[in-house]
Design brief:
Number of strands: 12
Strand content: 15-25%
CATH architecture of the largest domain: 3-Layer(aba) Sandwich
Distance between the termini: 40 Å
CATH superfamily of the largest domain: Response regulator
Strand order of the largest sheet: 7-6-8-9-10-11-12
Largest sheet: 7 strands, mixed
Number of helices: 13
Shape: globular
CATH topology of the largest domain: Rossmann fold
Low-confidence stretches: 1-60
Radius of gyration: 21 Å
Order of helices and strands: HHEHEHEHEEHEHEHEHEEHHHEEH
Number of domains: 2
Helix content: 25-40%
Mean pLDDT: 86
CATH class of the largest domain: Alpha Beta
Length: 460
């Protein structure tokens, strides 16, 4: 595969958008065995987002609930002990733009926090061994060979990986487990020994139909998409879910370079539809969609957007100088947007680690959770017994709760995608001035679609 341009290929750009974020979103407003942790994932309740905490909250960074989740012990790891290495790969540093450096920074923040406050892995510090795919699919082979050749690396973790992932999957060939927070590379879903903890495209898109039916009581839907190669296939997955939910749906493409999508909205029947959605990903597309919905007088309460439309650089360009008051979806529990104990705890940890600026980015949250989950598994196994086999066994048997994720994790729920362990999203209503209200804490694929896809466990 040849190198990409600075704008990702359309299917990659949309896949990343549907997953959680294409770029950093600054919303201001894995010896002897140790026992398994009994800690649970942070809860989430309705509320509004708060501003980032100051560094004075650093003392609260040794959060008991997070330490309990990892199964560690309060205190610092011993730097004199051999480290426990995790191979980490992300698309960054070149012409490939998926989510920038935030996945890596989020993962490193988690590793640093575990080493400083949760005792590492039985006292051994965690270490992130990074390798980046910058410009071409073939670069993945270098990363895969690096991790395979390093006997200290028992597990590989992905950040935002589209380019290079297929090559890594094929080269690693199941020899070491690959753990992903969110998968945006379709072949990952069927890769042996690859586990996606939160969700993967298109399973991230399916819950939108459940939301439309159960929370907006929609019977009709208008779906728009940027008319580029690869975009239609993703939107067809949304339509598939809508039909499974009993919602009559009309799908219309629009010119991604257009500043006015009024015609496309009208063609899709958006003015009278009960639910309106467009998988817009770029600032220009977000603005065009917002301006056109306002022009047609479409109720923002029936519009579903993605958090990448809340980019500070374009906030003032929206009608009224604020982000649209749509519903928004994210493939985690959205704790970063809430003003409650769970949300404050999360932001305080990032503040204590000097990373407040990325606390609101979904990729940062997902990678933070993934690293703490790996630490949890490693502490359960015990340092002396760590190996690719024992870590893979933990992944296979893990049923949650997942920090910032679903209350229950079911890897292999779908026969066609054995690596997918979750298929849910959280939904928020933007109320203006940086405030969000949680309206649907964890919504999954329509039951009828779960059944048609042969789900081994049906979840409402």
């Amino acid at each position: 595969m040849t190198a990409t341009t600075k704008e990702p290929r359309p299917w990659r750009r949309l896949a990343a958008a549907a997953a959680i974020a294409v770029a950093a979103i600054a919303v201001g407003a894995c010896g002897s065995s140790s026992s398994k942790s009994s800690g649970s994932a942070s809860g989430s309740t309705s509320g509004q987002s708060s501003s980032q905490p100051s560094s004075s909250t650093a003392a609260s960074a040794a959060v008991p609930s997070y330490i309990a989740y990892t199964g560690g012990k309060a205190g610092a790891a011993n730097p004199a002990l051999p480290p426990v290495e995790i191979g980490f790969v992300n698309d960054q540093g070149g012409s490939t733009v998926i989510a920038g450096t935030n996945p890596t920074t989020g993962a490193q923040t988690a590793v640093d926090w575990v080493n400083k406050y949760a005792g590492g892995i039985e006292g051994h510090p965690l270490k992130l061994v990074t390798c980046f795919v910058k410009n071409a699919e073939a670069e993945g082979q270098t990363c895969a060979q690096q991790f395979l050749a390093n006997p200290k690396v028992d597990v590989i973790a992905y950040g935002a990986m589209a380019l290079g992932a297929t090559t890594i999957d094929a080269t690693v060939a199941g020899k070491k487990p690959i753990i992903e927070g969110v998968a945006i590379n379709p072949p990952d879903l069927k890769t042996a020994n690859d586990y996606t903890l939160f969700a993967a495209v298109p399973f991230i898109d399916y819950p939108w139909a459940t939301f439309a039916k159960n929370y907006l009581h929609a019977k009709t839907a208008a779906i728009l998409y940027p008319n580029q190669t690869g975009q239609l296939e993703v939107e067809q997955a949304v339509v598939q879910a809508m039909h499974a939910a009993g919602i009559t749906t009309k799908l219309v493409g629009f010119d991604p370079n257009s500043t006015d999508v009024t015609g496309a909205l009208e063609a899709a029947g958006a003015p009278t539809a009960d639910f309106v959605q467009s998988n817009v990903a770029t600032p220009a597309e977000c603005l065009a969609f917002a301006n056109s919905t306002m022009k047609l007088g479409i109720d923002p309460g029936k519009v579903l957007g993605l958090f990448q439309c809340q980019v500070p650089s374009i906030k003032s360009q929206y009608p009224g100088g604020d982000y649209p008051k749509w519903s928004y979806t994210v493939a985690n529990n959205g704790v970063q947007y809430e003003n409650n104990a769970a949300g404050n705890t999360y932001r305080q940890v990032f503040a204590a680690m000097g990373q407040s600026s990325i606390a609101g980015d979904p990729w940062s949250l997902v990678e933070f959770s993934t690293m703490l989950t790996l630490a949890k598994w490693m502490n359960t196994i015990g340092y002396a017994k760590l190996s690719p086999t024992t870590i893979a066994a933990q992944a296979k048997s893990f049923r949650g709760p997942l920090l910032f994720g679903p209350p229950e994790v079911v890897c292999g729920k779908y026969p066609s995608a054995p690596g997918v362990c979750a298929d849910g999203d959280a939904f928020f209503k933007y109320e203006g001035n940086g405030n969000f209200k949680l309206i649907a804490p964890w919504v999954e694929t329509p039951v009828a679609l779960q059944k048609s896809l042969g789900a081994r466990q049906i979840t409402p």
